[in-house]
Amino acid sequence: MKTVYTFGGDAPHDESRQKDKTVTGGKGANLAEMAGIGLPVPPGFTITTEECVRYLQEGADFSDQLRADVANALTHIEGAVGKRFGDAADPLLVSVRSGARVSMPGMMDTVLNLGLNDATVQGLAATSGDPRFAWDSYRRFIQMYSDVVLGLDHGLFEEALEIAKEDKGYFTDTELESEDLEALVGEYKSIVANELGNSFPQDVTEQLWGAIAAVFDSWDSERAKVYRRLNAIPGDWGTAVNVQAMVFGNMGNSSATGVAFTRDPSTGERSYYGEWLVNAQGEDVVAGIRTPQYLTKARREAAGAELPSMEEAMPKAYGELARVFDLLEAHYRDMQDIEFTVQQGKLWMLQTRSGKRTAKAALKMAVDMAGEGLISEEEAILRVDPMALDQLLHPTLDPDAPRDVLGEGLPASPGAASGKIVLDADTAELWANREEEVILVRVETSPEDIHGMHAAKGILTARGGMTSHAAVVARGMGRPCVSGASAVSINLAERTLRIGQRELKEGDVITLDGSTGKVMAGRVPTIEPELAGDFGTLIGWADKYRRMGVRTNAETPEDCRTARQFGAEGIGLCRTEHMFFDAGRISAVRAMILADDEAGRRAALERLLPEQRGDFAEIFRTMAGLPCTIRLLDPPLHEFMPTRDAEFADLADDLGVDIEHLKRRAAELHEFNPMLGHRGCRLGITFPEIYEMQARAIFEAAVAVTGEGGEPVVPEVMIPLVATKKELEILRALVVRTANTVFEEMGASVDYLTGTMIELPRAALMAGEIAEEARFFSFGTNDLTQTALGVSRDDAGRFLGSYVDQGIYERDPFVSLDIDGVGQLVEIAVERGRATRPDIKLGICGEHGGDPESIAFCEKVGLDYVSASPYRVPIARLAAAQAALKAKG
Ligand code: PEP
Ligand code: MG
C-alpha cells in the first residue's frame, strides 16, 4: 500500500486511492484532482491518513517505508520545480499542512517556508533578488516552526518583533528593512537557544520530519479533540500531511494571497466572493491580522471600501481566477472554497473544497443549482444537511422593535441572539452552565476559544474578516456572529469594553444580529421564522420523495400549531403528564398521588377530569382530524411530589389534612430508582382510576370535537412502559370499557385505536405476543436506550461524555440511536410485531425521531412514521426524504 502520493508537475493522478479523502484527506484528494484537470497546483506530495494512524498507534515512530517514500517524493518536487531541498545556492522551500478527511478549520498545524537555514536564506536572497523577502521568510519560518514544532510560546517572538519595530520607530511590519529582519532572525535564534538549550535546527531534513511529526501529533491536540467531539468526527481517522513547493504571495506588489468562494457563502447568491491581500502570505488572511480587501469591484463598491479589489488591481490574475472558479464549479458541481496565491503575477491554486455555508446559503444554492441544471432535484435534497436547517428555524429580530445600536461589524453568521457579555471562553462556559445566555466578545477568536463559542448564544469580535476563525467556526456551529467590529475595544483587566462612545461591562446584556452585523444594547425582541422561499421549495421537493410520515411530540395547543406550521402530519406523542405541571393543577395531582386510598384519589381525579378534557379538545381542534397519539400517564411520580415545606403546607391547607401526615405519606412513596419504579403502565395497573379518568377525558373530548363538524377525531390511546402482554390486555380492556361507557352516555362514538410503546427490552423481544393486543407500536427509544444500555437517563450526563471521547459510543446514544445494540431490539420488535399483525402501525417517538442518522435507520427497518419535537419537524421531513433516496440507491 502506498504511503505517499505525488501531485503536480508530471505526476500521474489517476489512482483512485489518491482521490479518496479517507486516504489522502480532503486537501490532498482535491489537490490531486485539481492537478489532474490541469489547474496550476504547486507540485507536492501527500502522506496518507493511514500513516498518521500508524504513527500515533506505534508511539510516534515513522516506518522505514515512509522515510523512503518521502525521500522519493521530495525528488519529484525537486524535479518539477528545478530546485533542490537544502541547496544553499537555489533552495527549494516547502509548506507542510495537515488535511483530514473533513475540514477542521484552524484545528491542526501548518508550517510554511520550510527549508530555510543560515545558508539557504542567502541563496533565496540571491535568486529572488530580494534580500528583505528572504530574511522576512526566514523570520516567519523560525516563528512558525518554533511555535508549531518546538512548542515555544508564540508571544516571545511577537514581543521581539514589537521591540525591533519600536527601536526603529516603525508602526508596521512592512517598514522593517532587510538588515532589521536579519538582526531579528538572530534575535529569534537566541530565543530558541535560550528556551530549549539547543540551537534552531539547520538540517532541512530534520526540519521536514519535525514538521510532519507535529502535524501528526496535532491530530490528538486538545483543541482538535474538542472540535471532533462537537462535530462527531471519529478519533481514529487521522490526518494526512501535504508537503508542497512554496509559492510566495509576499514577493512584492505583483504578488498576493487570498481565499474565495465561487458563490456567496452567507446568502448563497451566485456571485464570486472573497478576500485577498497584496504582498502577504496565506495565513495573514485567515488569521485576521490585516484587514483584507474585496475580491470583486462590485463588492468593494457595495461596501464603500477604498482599497482596490483584485479585479481592479490585478485584472489578469483575476481573470484567470474567475476562469478557474467556473471550471471548479462545473467539475465538482458544488460551491467551492478556494485558497490561492499569486506569485509575481502568476496564479497558483493551493486548495479547493466544497465550501462551508450558512443554512440559508445551502438552501439557496441547492435550489438554484437544481434550477440551473447543474444538479438534479434529488441531489438538491441530498445537498442540505438537515441539522443545518436548525439555523433557519431560529428567531430573527422583530423589525418593529426599537433598538439602540451600539456599533456594527461584518454579518459573519446569521441569526439574532441576546445575552450577557462575557470576555473569555472559560467564563462563557461557566456562565452557560449556570443556564445563563451569554455573548462571547473577543478581539478575535482562536481555536482555544472553541468551547466558549459553543457555550455562547452569539459571538462578537473586534477584528477579522468574513473568513476569520470566528466567522468560519460560528457559521459551522450555527451561532450568530458579528466579526471585525472595529469600534469594539476590550479592557480585559477591568472586564469592560467600549463600543464606540459607550462603556459596557461583563454581564451587561447586548443583542447581535448576525445577518446585518449590528450590535445593540439590551435585549431586542425576536420573531419566529417561517418556512417560505427556498426553504419551502426544498422541503416541498423532499415531501415528494419521502416514504415515512412525520409527526410531532407535542402537548400544548401552541406546540401543535408550531408543529403543523412546520408540516407535522399528526401527533406521535402527547405526554399527558406534561399537562399536569400547571400551577393550577399541580395541587390536584399531588392530592391524587398522596391520597391514602382509592376514594381520595378519585376525588382528586374528579378535579383533573375537566381540565384534561379541555386540553384534549383544544389539541384535537388544532390538529383538525390528523392522527393524535395520546399517551396515558407515564412518569415517575416523584417528579410531582412536593419537596419544599411551603409546598407541603399549601397542599395540607388545600386538602384540610395534617402536614406531617402528608410528609409521612411522601416518605412512604419514596423510590430509590424512580425511572425503574412505579411509573408507566404500572400506575394504571395499580391505580386503574387514573387511566380511567384520562381515557374518559380523551373520549369525551373526541366525541365533542367530532360533533362540532370538521374532520372526525380518531384518537390513538397509547399505554407506556409495557413489558408483558398481560399488562396491555388489562389496560386495553379498561380503555375499551371506558370508551363504551362514554359513547353510551354521550349517544355518539368515534373510531379509535389502542396501542403501546415499545420501550423495554422485554417488550421488544415479546413483540409478537404484545401485538395481539396492540394496533400500533411506538418505539420509546429514550427508555429503550436507558434500559438496554443500563444507563440512567438522569445520570448519564456525568459520564457519557467521556465514553464518547474514548470512542466507546460514537455519539451520545440518547441523541443518536445506538443502531448496533438498541437498533437490533427495534428490528426484532418490527419483525415479530408484523408477523402477528401485518398491518400494525409502527412509529418512533423517542428523541431519536428528530435525529437524521436515526431517521435513516427507521427508514431501513420500514417504520411508518417518525415523531419529533416541533422545531425538528422540518429536519425530520428532509432527513426522511434523504433516507428514502439513499435507500433507493
Ligand atoms: C421514550 O421513552 O422514548 C419516550 C418517548 O417517552 P419518555 O421520554 O416520555 O419516557
Ligand atoms: Mg418513555
Polypeptide structure, described:
It contains 35 helices and 33 strands. The chain is of the alpha/beta class. The chain has 5 domains: 242 residues, ATP-grasp fold, A domain (Dna Ligase, domain 1, 2-Layer Sandwich); 99 residues, ATP-grasp fold, B domain (D-amino Acid Aminotransferase, Chain A, domain 1, 2-Layer Sandwich); 134 residues, Phosphohistidine domain (Glucose Oxidase, domain 1); 137 residues, Phosphoenolpyruvate-binding domains (TIM Barrel); 180 residues, TIM Barrel (Alpha-Beta Barrel). α34 links the parallel β32 and β33. α4 crosses α5 and α22 runs antiparallel to α23. The model has no long low-confidence stretch (mean pLDDT 91). The protein binds phosphoenolpyruvate and magnesium ion. The site of magnesium ion has 5 residues, from α31.
Keywords summarizing the entry:
Dna Ligase, domain 1; D-amino Acid Aminotransferase, Chain A, domain 1; Glucose Oxidase, domain 1; 5 domains; eight-stranded parallel β-barrel; 35 helices; binds phosphoenolpyruvate; binds magnesium ion
Secondary structure elements and their pairing?
Layout: E1 4-7, H1 21-36, E2 44-47, H2 49-57, H3 64-81, E3 84-85, E4 91-92, E5 94-100, E6 110-114, H4 120-128, H5 131-148, H6 154-168, H7 178-196, H8 204-218, H9 222-230, E7 239-245, E8 256-261, E9 273-278, H10 282-286, E10 293-294, H11 297-303, H12 310-313, H13 315-332, E11 336-343, E12 346-354, H14 359-372, H15 377-383, H16 389-392, E13 396-397, E14 405-408, E15 410-413, E16 416-422, H17 425-433, E17 438-442, H18 450-455, E18 458-461, H19 469-477, E19 481-483, E20 488-491, E21 496-499, E22 502-505, E23 509-513, E24 518-521, E25 526-527, H20 533-545, E26 549-553, H21 557-565, E27 571-575, H22 583-594, H23 598-623, E28 628-631, H24 645-655, H25 659-669, H26 681-686, H27 688-707, E29 715-719, H28 725-746, E30 753-758, H29 761-765, H30 767-770, E31 776-779, H31 781-789, H32 800-805, H33 822-836, E32 841-844, H34 852-861, E33 865-868, H35 873-888
Parallel strand pairs: 3-4, 16-17, 17-18, 18-19, 26-27, 26-33, 27-28, 28-29, 29-30, 30-31, 31-32, 32-33
Antiparallel strand pairs: 1-2, 2-7, 5-6, 5-7, 8-9, 8-11, 9-10, 11-12, 13-25, 14-24, 15-19, 16-23, 20-21, 21-22, 23-24
Helix pairs in contact: 4-5, 5-7, 6-7, 14-15, 14-20, 15-20, 20-35, 21-23, 22-23, 23-27, 27-28, 34-35
The structure holds phosphoenolpyruvate and magnesium ion.
